[in-house]
Amino acid sequence: MGSTASLVVRAGGGRWRWWGVLAVCALSADVVAAAGYKELPVDPPTLRGWRKLASSPLRSEVINMLAGLAPLNVDNFDKFFNDQMFPQFTLIKENVVVPPADLKDSREGGSVLPKCRREFVQQFISAAKDKTAFDRLNQLTVKTMGDIALDNYHPLSRYTAVMVLASLHEWDDPSLPRREEAKPLAAAFPRLLSCLESIDVVKVAALNALTRHVKAEIDAEQRSRLIPALLKLVADKKVAPSSTLSGHDWIRRQAIELLVLAAQSEPAAQKATAAALDAILQDSGSSLELCCAAAKGLGGLRLNGLDPAVTAYSIGQVAVDAYKAELARAELLSLEMTAPPTPSQGGIMPAGRGQGPAIGGPGLPGAGLGGVAAPAASEEQQFISVQLLKSQLACLQQGLRGPSGKGGGVLAAAAGTPAEKFVTDVDGKLDALILACNNNVPSYLTLKTQIKTAGDALDALLAGHPTPKARSAAIPAAAAPAGPVGDFGEPAAKPAAGKAAP
């Protein structure tokens, strides 16, 4: 099974999406049997399946209890949820992984679990008007969903259980139009915190759930437990056998975002966070994406206790790595696009933007035909991912300048110190490199020269400023465990030397 995190981020463009998780967790029947995933028993068994739950005689009774139309009968209330509803979230064949032909709504992506979660929250949690019944339901939900999230149930069940925990909220005025905007349920916080020690798919959901809690303002006791857990996750370099380096790093990047957010109101937490992010920048084994996240995070903190020159050097070196990696990738692409096919290939030759295809047969002589040398890169061709490189450099610059572009970051920490001039020079060279990444330059050769000139100037500045504790310019490629694998668990080509751009 490939990395959950890497699939989720690819599927959702930075946001966790159900079908991305499903792509990872929808295992074959043989794999499921071998994994020995648990299921909670349904009583009576005739109610196995989400649609069959509607026929339970307890359903209407429980709805009336939550609506305040009937007194709370704890035995019947608990039986409905513990023995009939919550087990539905663990039933593999009936609800977790369902053949497309059995699904009425194809948008659910091969599982009934999104519908289970949505209807549970809407029809029971959000619809409750009796506080006693509401509190009882929250208590039952935290217990069972926490157990599912942290035990050996199907990964989709565990992911959904965390999402249910994320949806729970404190009692408020039932007349509010959007009750899900109420304060997150504090009783769910400890369970969500425990999920950070779990498998990748559970961590992904828990980080998003905890972000909701932090944005709603957690108390000092919660913060004192969350910060160390996030620091541990951010510093964790060990990649699980079932994950990939890119997936593991993506989780660390999400943890960085939450850590910076959670540390805002606590100077001691900010200092520890800054040290952890600075350590990532100085580690030559850190990936480019992880370094960009660390630099961006530093920009949102008050940087006390760091050496501004060392941090600025590390940020500058990552920028150098980024532009060199992108130019190397673009050069390789240009060679592939302009290389001629072998005499046995024939067919359509690669053509750049602005060129028509060259069509020919195998080994036929003549202009534009198979086996004939392809033209060199033309002025109309472009192989550099300008926006990607620019976004990476912008994250690094935020570490120097702060989120508003001035008055923060390493520049603020260096103000009035001997490091101020060097940090200012690094910022100026980085700014010139960003300006060199101009989308309006159509020529690959011109843009390549423009970026290389600006990048080399930054590289020369760093080379002339000795910083023995800073990041080394020689950056080895990091390898995932058990041999290199791609984001989907497939064998990957051997990475080129240096830091690979995404």
Structure description:
This protein has 502 residues and is mainly α. The chain is built from 20 helices and two strands. It has helices at 4-12, 18-25, 29-35, 57-67, 74-85, 92-96, 113-125, 131-150, 155-167, 189-195, 200-215, 220-235, 245-262, 267-282, 288-299, 308-338, 386-401, 409-414, 420-436, 444-463; strands spanning 347-349, 358-360. Strands 1-2 form a two-stranded antiparallel ribbon. Residues 1-19, 26-30, 346-374 and 473-502 have low confidence and may be disordered.
Strand content: under 5%
Cα gyration radius (Å): 27 Å
List segments where confidence is low: pLDDT < 50 over at least 5 consecutive residues. 1-19, 26-30, 346-374, 473-502
User: Would you count the extended β strands for me?
Assistant: 2
| Main sheet strand line-up | 1-2
Write the layout of secondary structure elements.
Elements: H1 4-12, H2 18-25, H3 29-35, H4 57-67, H5 74-85, H6 92-96, H7 113-125, H8 131-150, H9 155-167, H10 189-195, H11 200-215, H12 220-235, H13 245-262, H14 267-282, H15 288-299, H16 308-338, E1 347-349, E2 358-360, H17 386-401, H18 409-414, H19 420-436, H20 444-463
Antiparallel strand pairs: 1-2
Helix pairs in contact: 1-2, 1-13, 4-5, 5-8, 7-9, 8-9, 8-10, 9-11, 10-11, 11-13, 12-13, 12-14, 13-14, 13-15, 14-15, 15-16, 15-17, 16-17, 16-19, 16-20, 17-19, 19-20
Task: Using brief descriptors, characterize the structure shown.
502 residues; mainly alpha; two-stranded antiparallel sheet; 2 strands; 1% strand; disordered C terminus
